[in-house]
Amino acid sequence: MTDQRVNSPRTGATASVAARKASPAVYRRRRLVVFVGVLVIVLVLVLLAGFAWPGFWRSAATPEPVPTVTVTAPVPTPTVKAMDRSGEETAFQKALPSAVLQLALGSLTEAKEPKGEGALEAWNAEYSDGDSVEVAVVAGQWATEDEAATGAAAWTASAGEADRTGDVKVGKKVVGQYAFVPADGGKTVVVWQNGTAVLQATGPADVMEDFYTAFPL
Prior knowledge:
This protein is α+β, with helices and mostly antiparallel strands. The protein is built from 6 helices and 8 strands, in the order H-H-H-E-E-H-E-E-H-E-E-E-E-H. It has 2 domains: about 15-60; about 90-215, Protein Transport Mog1p, Chain A, CATH 3.40.1000. The chain has an 8-stranded antiparallel beta sheet with strand order 1-2-3-4-8-7-6-5.
């Protein structure tokens, strides 16, 4: 007798397991969904950080330059007392300062030589720090700016050969010329015109630039 066996189709639990077995395409789609979800979460966190902390956006950028702080040294003042000026003075005398930086006015006497050159009035002034720095100033005033320019040129030529010259300005207006002339003994002579006034200052070379710049006339 022949044993006839017929293969019957899979049923029950066996069929259910086969149905649940996912294909590789399904796994790829799931990984893609997870990856996109992570990116969205990261983007949301970055946006929240940017709004909550504005500096966050600049943290990865080039640092902003630190502002340069310029420290200005205090203007030096005299440690010695200037001469008494309680007597009568002309307007031109009053324009000559009692102190220039650390130098105080020690004497103020009439100068005769500039008057022989046509000056209406002229004065010799001595400035000192009471120790080693002394600057001698001759100041004269002429009737016109042209006459003052002639006087300034004569004083400069008498001092020697200038190594630096330039315009004297009040604001943007040119009111004369200045000249720096090297002198013996480590000194410098500065001659300058300011309108009808002409001044000549002689002193140590290392202080004359500052003295000339600070002189108010």
